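pasting for the record
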Amino acid sequence: MSENCSRCNGNGQIACPGCGGRGAKSQNKGLNETRVVNCSGCNGSGRVSCGGCGGTGKK
């Protein structure tokens, strides 16, 4: 029997490191102007596959 991955607690996914799990990032557009865009690392979902288990959720 396989144990759950300790990094993702068996979910197979972790918070996206690029956006901190928010799914969006602020982007500077010019002086004093920013806009919010979807994170390209997670395509706006806020989650990415766990590198510790390859997304399986198991050790």
